[in-house]
Specification:
With 311 residues, the protein is an alpha/beta fold. Helices cover 46% and strands 15% of the residues. A 4-stranded parallel β-sheet has the order 2-1-3-4, sandwiched between helices. It has a 4-stranded parallel β-sheet with strand order 6-5-7-8, with helices on both faces. Strand 3, helix 6 and strand 4 form a beta-alpha-beta unit. The chain is globular, with a radius of gyration of 20 Å. It binds ligand FEC. The site of ligand FEC has 20 residues, from helix 2 and helix 11.
Length: 311
């Protein structure tokens, strides 16, 4: 016999979403084509991206880590099934929706493995879910958690990672440590439409700095797209140059906009930014991403339970 609450839980579920990542080098072209909304990349762009994946070992841990996060979340919110859907590759969001429909899910909370809202990121995941619902003639009632950039558990978990990275510097370096917080750049035109992305990012940084008592920090965008239009700056590499010119010798980078150690962190910071500083006598360390950190699943569980309670 199931209690009424257990009965309700059987028709309620969580959709955990992330960007998506090719499983091997041969999947890069169709993956990249999807990111470019159906336009195939030029041979030069394809070669450049293939080179980046090859440099991090041929594939990214993004899916593996998202699945691990889903598993720990499932353990935290016993009773609700967690479905995983990716925006740009398998397992697709549309596959998750088909599975949810087949399982008789009627209400769901959607959350993305990205803390900051933008019309060019989180809103696109929501659109993707809506299109998938149309495709499968599904009418699951979705409630989306659109941002969680100022939540204590996220801020405190990041502070823990920054504290771990501080220990990679010697005592003298720690006294003069400069902090750079980063996130994925987006086209600058989002500012004109009042997109909250940049402000939410700065709020995250200010909360971390305030709690840690750090005053020597700045924010930079990274991973700007290879397109003609202007992307949000300043770019991480420019900011690194400015710091070199000022004589800064120890820099701790923390990518607050990313949750997982994936391509954009493993290549753009661990390889590209490091190479950029080679021969410049600067000690750079990066705070590890949260990945499947238990405080993150605790936060997701809390936010999801609150949403279900409000339905
Ligand atoms: O590890 C992996 O295999 C995948 C890593 C990955 C994540 C990610 C997250 C975000 N992106 C965001 C915005 C854009 C915009 C464009 C764009 C392009 C790419 C390309 C790759 C890529 N992104 Fe990404 N992104 C990841 C990977 N991204 C690869 C294509 C090559 C390149 O430009 O580097 C430009 C699209 C266009 O051309 O029209 C815009 C944002 C996030 C953070 C939120 C999220 O995770 O969804 C914002 C992870």
């Amino acid at each position: 016999m199931f209690t009424p609450m257990e009965e309700t839980k059987k028709t309620r579920a969580v959709l955990l979403m992330a960007y998506g990542s090719p499983n091997n080098l041969s999947e890069i072209e169709p993956y990249y084509t999807d990111i470019r909304r159906g336009r195939k990349p030029t041979p030069e762009l394809l070669e450049e991206l293939t080179g980046r994946y090859a440099a991090i070992g041929g594939s990214s841990p993004l899916l593996r880590t998202t699945l691990a996060q889903a598993k720990s979340l499932e353990a935290q919110i016993a009773g609700y099934k967690i479905y995983v859907g990716m925006r740009h590759w398998t397992p697709w969001i549309r596959e998750a929706i088909a599975e949810m429909k087949a399982d008789g899910i009627t209400e769901a909370v959607g959350i993305v493995m990205a803390p900051h809202y933008s019309s060019m990121s989180i809103a696109k995941y929501i659109e993707n879910v809506e299109k998938a619902q149309e495709l499968h003639q599904s009418d699951i009632k979705f409630n989306f958690i659109e941002s969680w950039h100022d939540e204590d558990l996220y801020i405190d978990a990041l502070i823990g990672k920054i504290a771990e990275a501080q220990l990679k510097f010697n005592e003298e370096e720690r006294k003069h440590l400069h902090y750079i917080f980063t996130a994925h750049s987006l086209p600058e035109r989002i500012l004109a439409i009042g997109d909250p992305y940049k402000n939410q990012l700065l709020e995250t940084c200010a909360l971390i700095a305030g709690k840690m008592g750090i005053s020597d920090w700045e924010f930079a965008f990274q991973s700007a797209g290879r397109t003609e239009e202007k992307w949000l700056g300043p770019d991480l590499l420019e900011v690194l140059d400015e710091n070199v010119n000022k004589g800064i010798k120890s820099i701790l980078v923390c990518s607050v906009g990313f949750i997982i150690d994936h391509l954009e962190v493993m290549y753009d910071i661990d390889i590209e930014a490091r190479n950029h500083l080679a021969q410049k006598n600067v000690h750079l360390e990066r705070a590890r991403s949260l990945n499947d950190h238990p405080m993150l699943s605790q936060l997701f569980a809390q936010l999801i339970e609150e949403r279900f309670a409000s339905l």
